[in-house]
Amino acid sequence: MKKLPPHQYALIKALGSDPADCSVEGLATLAGIDQALVSAAAVELEREALLTISEHPYRELSLGELGQAIQQGTAQLPERLLAEVLMGLGGSASMRDLGGNSRLAEADVVPGKFARLLVEHGWADFEKGTLSLKPEFVSHEPPASDAEALMVALQTAGGSLLLDESADPRLSAGAEFLKGRRELVSVRERSRRSLALTAAGRALAADVASGSVSELREVNELTPELLSDGSWRNVDFRRYDVSLAADRVHPGKTHPLMRVIDKVRLAYLELGFSEAGCEMAESAFWDFDCLFQPQDHPAREMQDTFYLKQPSRYELPADSGLVDRIRRTHEDGGDTGSKGWRYQWSAERASQVVLRTHMTASSIRAISREPHAPSKVFSIGRVFRRETVDNTHLPEFHQVDGIIIDEHASLATLMGTLGKFYERLGINDIKLKPAFFPYTEPSVEVHIKWGDTWMEMGGAGIFRPEVTQPFGVRHPVLAWGLGIERLAMAYYGVRVIKDLYQSDLSWLQNVPLEA
To answer: What predicted TM-score, i.e. pTM, was given to this entire model?
Structure first.
């Protein structure tokens, strides 16, 4: 037995009864289903040549604010008022005289705006700045225009009216004339659809009436009720089309940069590291001096580092022995075997307060708390440098710093650790290049593949004895500091670093939850 989907079945059945009203609205009422379902079923049946769809345009009219005032007798049609004023002035007047007329001014009627309408109504002529009523209207009011006839019809109908192709031509002309004058009449173009069965459709309606075509009962899932009463035998299970378009959903989610930070943190925790931290405002002692960076180093100048005015000084550590060992290391190498930097170290410069320039300050504090092996520590935070902004540089960015203290640690250990870290983030193209840093030896720069080129991520190396021995460390210390924004750029294919901080909703919505 042939079966029709429910809405098609209901529509064919309704049309087969030869209803007087074959509009979509009337058929929806007759079939007992929503108009949208009738429209959808009609489109499907028209595609199968079972019915035809006819469009019947009509206009929906309603009185505007001024139109309602005219209906209540508290206002006049502007062009009618202008005609009355002209009659009072003998049938003719210049635009300047009309502009000064108190009656027009009181009604807020601008002569220049409505003079054209008198001409279009056929009531007056306009020549050389003068508006003149036609001779037959100088002593007798002009007849009602099509627009006024429409206004009267609207008032009689209670303020709203429908006009279709069978409407009075004069009313249709009035609606056309008033189109755009919403203060008088609101004109909305509408369309009504009517349906009619084709010969094939009538044959199908006859089969529906005889029972040889039935309604297709589709269900989405097999329920306990269908099983218990056996009705599952008489239903069809709807097929799922996974290729159909679905609504795009933009759920709330963590910012892409924060997701990279979370991934970095998880990678280090999974590698057995402990997390440490320090304050954003740090003393130069911990940020520079403990790293054997001389006090006249260019990186410590005002043009490279942010110094705080308030507070401008931090107390040096209470451990005077540590401070003295740092001083001696700078001046003559102390007990490290180094010659130091050969200058007079200043405690005042060491107590200056800076916005931390790297997370290595956190690593040094971690060493001071626990100088003994084995130890694996990392820290993540914002750092600040007076950088020139370009595609890969910002004055404020995030950095991850890490250290390993182990008696067997070596450069090979460092290279393997960095490789494993990036591998956990899905980055396999990594390159280490020889480099120089004041506080590590040997030193390397870390680069990862970024599109068709290589991008520097940071520096790494083995802390010099001048860094570790003042804290009592007796084993090698591996250290590195890596930029996170650049990692996010590689992760998400961003070409300009500042784009990570701009609220581009389109980009934020379309970044996948997992890159």
So the answer is: 0.55
- Amino acid, single-letter form, for residue 412: A
Please give the single-letter amino acid code of residue 13. Answer: K
Q: What are the C-alpha distances in Å from 4 to residues 28, 39, 45, 156, 494?
A: 17, 16, 10, 47, 53
Q: Is the dihedral of CA 80, 85, 91, 95 positive or negative?
A: negative
Position 1 scores a pLDDT of 61
Chain center to CA of 20: 50
Q: Please state whether beta strands 440-450 and 453-463 pair in parallel, antiparallel, or not at all (unpaired).
A: antiparallel
Closest of 14, 44, 12 to residue 29, by C-alpha: 14
Region for residue 128 given its phi and psi (left: phi exceeds 0; alpha: psi -120 to 50; beta: otherwise) = left
Give one DSSP letter per residue of 36-82, joined into a string: HHHHHHHHHHHHTTSEEEEEEEEEEEEE-HHHHHHHTTS---HHHHH
Answer whether 115's CB lies under 8 Å from 133's CB: no
Q: How far is it, in rounded angstroms, from Cα 479 to Cα 439?
A: 10
457 SS3 class: strand
| Amino acid letter, 159 | G
- Whole-number CA gyration radius for the chain: 43
Distance, CA of 9 to CA of 62 (rounded, Å): 38
DSSP calls for 121-133: HTSEEEETTEEEE
Q: What is the pLDDT of residue 515?
A: 52
With H, G, I as helix, E, B as strand and everything else as coil, classify residue 300.
Answer: helix
**Is the CA virtual torsion 39, 43, 44, 49 positive or negative?**
positive
pLDDT tens readout for residues 231-266: 888 777 878 888 888 888 888 889 999 999 999 999
pLDDT at position 415 is 95
On the CB side of 303, how many CA atoms lie within 13 Å of its CA? 3
